[in-house]
Amino acid sequence: MKIHLTLSFLFISISAFASIDRGRVDSLKILIAGANKQTLPDTTTIKRLNNLAENYFDSNPDSTLFYGRKSIEQSRKINYRQGLANGLVLTGHANFFKGRFAQGQQNFDEALDIYKSINDLKGLSNCYKLYGRMDNLLAKYQTALYYLNLALDLNTQLKDDTEIADCYKNIGIVYFSEGQNSTALDYYYKALYLTIKNNDHNASASIYNDIGVVLQGMEVYPKALEHYHKALNLFKGTNNLTGVGTINENIGEVLIAHKEYDRAIVHLSKAIKIAKKQDDKDGMSSVFTDLGLCYAHKGQFALAKRYLDTSLQIASKFKIVYNQAYALIGMATMYNLQKDYKNAYIYATQGQHLAATLRNLTVRSSAALQLNKTLAGLGRYDDAYNMLKRYNELKDSLNNNESIQKLTSYNLELNFASKERQLAQQHKEKDDSYNQRIKQQRLINLIFLTIIIGMLAVSIVYYRQKRKQQQINAMLEDKNREVLQQKTDLDDQAKKLNDLNVLKDRLISVLAHDLRAPLSTLRGLFSLLEDETISHEQMLAMIPGVLKKLEYTSDFLDTLLFWINSQMDNFDSSTKSFFIKDIVAYETESYLEQAKLKGINIIDSVSQDAVASADPNSIRIVIRNLITNAIKFSSENDTIEITSIQQDDHNYVISVKDTGMGMSEEQLGKLFKSKVNSNTGTNNESGTGMGMLFCKDLVEKCSGKIWVTSKQGQGTKFSFTVPMGKLTESHLEVA
């Protein structure tokens, strides 16, 4: 039974496509031409409609809906159950993508019944997977995991690596949404191993983006941007507009965290353009909130409120719980910036309540932070303090050591496995090339012998065969040398991996030893407060000491995290030209208050026009460590002076000199060689003993050298070299 496509239907179809892309119209013309030869739709036409619906999803979901509905309509006419189920799944996917969750659920439920009745395991697994993705958007995490694990079991039976990887990825997304970053990383890297193995760039790009989101939540922004750019490069040349839009939004959010609002708006504008084109309700709501935050921080509150209101309306209408919470927190942020704490409190409490249902650590910590600011602005200091404690607990969970260690371990394993695969591929290519040359040589010899067989004597034939054997032996010797060299390279890689493992153990030891004391102090103080063991006056007396330990711990963690990143093979040192004065002035200003409390005078004598060429973040860390070290070992009326002089035509020497307590010869001998036992400062300040080791490593990565001169009781002078640079007009514009 085949239906005839009348002329009126043709006109209606082409008219309906007036606003649709040209490629879709051309594809429809092909289908209409084929259908005009039939009286009823056939299975081939329905399969083509479903293929078109699937191929258009990443670039134009409206096309997916159109072709999916046509497939459903024609499948029902001929009772083609396989085509009907496939059309329902594609239509359901597009419906929930556009925020029509009830329609999506209805499509999926009908498709599941059909797949089960015809025992189509592949179709069933795909439907389960999409059901799980939809439930994750609705914050139904347990249901989402149930469906995704069903899909994973079926794909494991089918031995479909591509779909197994996609299931791992989506399970990781659910665990990330629940705030279980460590478990999310487990699944992301399982998926990434499979996509790299199968050379699936599109899927790898999506996973790199998801790992970047975890890093962004942990505030490891340079590594997050590195993963986003990896994903963006892999997406280039594809039609995956959804992926490109998502990555631009994520890059925009990192730039917001860095307070680079104008640059963030550039990326967010690209993201919103794609989301609007695809009618992506989830994407539009999320990006509108980000744009609202940008304009709020720029002081353009009317524009910010318009964006945030739009985001909240979309998220509420389509019940996208995550975006609702995100928009409410954005509203609270905007009102806090205006010091309108009454309105901020309304949105902050709503955002806090909704965030609690999500379990996502990033959203919950953001909600706690804004509610803390609101309560402080309203004068409710006790409530604000409790909320600040809650915020710190969430941030600690977000940045837990387990996630950092897993990330480091996975990256090392992934890089090593990738290099092994590259070497294996090179071996194969060389072997194939070698065998091909051997075959060609044999063919040439055969033809040559055939032509001149009657003209050559036995001695000439013997001579040529012997020469041929010598050539083969020489080639085999070359091949053996190459194999030995590659074995040596692999041994070097294994040694390097072992060295990095030792480094990991060393860092864990430092974290376990040097962070235990301040955390124990805080825990003890909070226990005393909870038990009401100490009075209010006693608590106030203890607070300055606790704050000193917190400041030390925070500074140490900043330095340690940056140094950990610098130890990665793929760490981008971001070498650029910059004014040394800018960095020194910033760090000096940051520590003026601390120096003033000890009665210490800090003098910035760095030349205004001294330009260095290095990684400014590395130099900033070094100068920060040297200044804090000088303050630590100086007393009242001491002086700290920072200077820069040109050493030669290629280098500047930056020095931090103090008139403090100085060091003995024994201390000087151990300073840059390994972790030392740090002495307490003039006000009993503590230290880790790792700071100078970090400084030496960072200076050497910037092609410099560091040294120290000191006499006990007469002060200390730390000096290091940094390459000279030259600022162009483009550098000045960036600056």
Protein architecture, described:
Its EC number is 2.7.13.3. InterPro entries: HATPase_C_sf, HATPase_dom, His_kinase_dom, HisK_dim/P_dom, HisK_dim/P_sf, Sensor_HK_Regulatory, Sig_transdc_His_kin-like_C, TPR-like_helical_dom_sf. Residues 473-500 form a coiled coil. This is histidine kinase. It catalyses: ATP + protein L-histidine = ADP + protein N-phospho-L-histidine. The structure is a single chain. By secondary structure, the chain is mostly helical. Among the domains are: 401-514; 517-566; 576-734, Histidine kinase-like ATPase, C-terminal domain (Heat Shock Protein 90, 2-Layer Sandwich), CATH 3.30.565.10. Helix content is 74%, strand content 6%. The chain contains 29 helices and 7 strands. It has a 5-stranded mixed sheet with strand order 2-4-5-7-6. The chain is flat, with a radius of gyration of 33 Å. Residues 1-25 and 32-37 have low confidence and may be disordered.
Secondary-structure topology with pairs:
Layout (H helix, E strand, L loop, with lengths): L6 H10 L5 H14 L7 H13 L5 H18 L2 H17 L3 H18 L2 H17 L3 H18 L2 H17 L3 H17 L3 H17 L3 H15 L5 H17 L3 H17 L3 H17 L3 H17 L3 H17 L3 H18 L2 H17 L3 H18 L2 H52 L5 H57 L1 H16 L4 H31 L9 E4 H18 L3 E5 L5 E4 L1 H17 L6 E8 L4 E8 L6 H6 L20 H11 L4 E6 L3 E9 L5 H6 L1
Parallel strand pairs: 2-4
Antiparallel strand pairs: 1-3, 4-5, 5-7, 6-7
Helix pairs in contact: 2-3, 3-4, 3-5, 4-5, 5-6, 5-7, 6-7, 7-8, 7-9, 8-9, 9-10, 9-11, 10-11, 10-21, 11-12, 11-13, 12-13, 13-14, 13-15, 14-15, 15-16, 15-17, 16-17, 17-18, 17-19, 18-19, 19-20, 21-22, 23-24, 24-28, 25-26, 26-28
GO molecular function, one term: phosphorelay sensor kinase activity
Organism: Mucilaginibacter xinganensis
Pfam family, one: HATPase_c
